[in-house]
Amino acid sequence: MRDNSKFVGYLFEVAWILPSVAIPVTLFVAVVITAFAVGIRVPTDVGRVDPQALAQTVPFDNPGIREMAPGVYEATVIAQTFAFTPGEIEIPLDSKVTFTLTSRDVIHGFKIEGTDVNGMIVPGQITKVTTTFRRPGEYLIVCHEFCGAGHHLMFGKVIVK
Ligand code: CUA
Questions:
Q1: pTM of the model
Q2: Does domain 45-160 correspond to CATH entry 2.60.40.420?
Q3: Pocket around ligand 1: residues whose beta carbon is below 6 Å from it?
Q4: Going by CA atoms, what residue is nearest to atom 1 of ligand 1?
Q5: What is the pLDDT of residues 74-131, one digit of tens each?
Q6: Is 129 exposed, middle or buried (0-12, 13-18, 19+ CB in 10 A)?
Q7: How do the domains of the chain map onto residue ranges?
């Protein structure tokens, strides 16, 4: 009788090695496809700011919406317990809006329902995230990082007309 145990051992080894190569390769390909073909971006920390000196720091000294070019806007928003300033942002339909965000106190979240905007607002850092509003209506902005007793009351609104 022939001893097959060595051969079976190799099979087991290959059966474990293949997925351990295939899974990371698949995930890497998924990251490349979503980044370049689907355009999914990670909100990035693009700079630092002194949370004590927001009133003297451009653009946080003047929060709100500014038109940078036709159809291109920049919205500067400050988060603090338990509100966004400004709480309401009005923009025309089909505008491309870059949100420039920071926090005055603790970590907050910034998610605009029905869009791909989903960022974290960290005191001392500036977060930028861009999206285009292609449907008219009201979009709810929610804080989705637990920031204290009033966390569930922290929201804002984007109105697209
Ligand atoms: Cu701010 Cu939760």
A1: 0.76
A2: yes
A3: 82, 108-109, 143, 145-147, 151, 154
A4: 108
A5: 999 999 999 999 999 999 999 999 999 999 999 999 999 999 899 999 999 999 999 9
A6: buried
A7: 1-40, 45-160
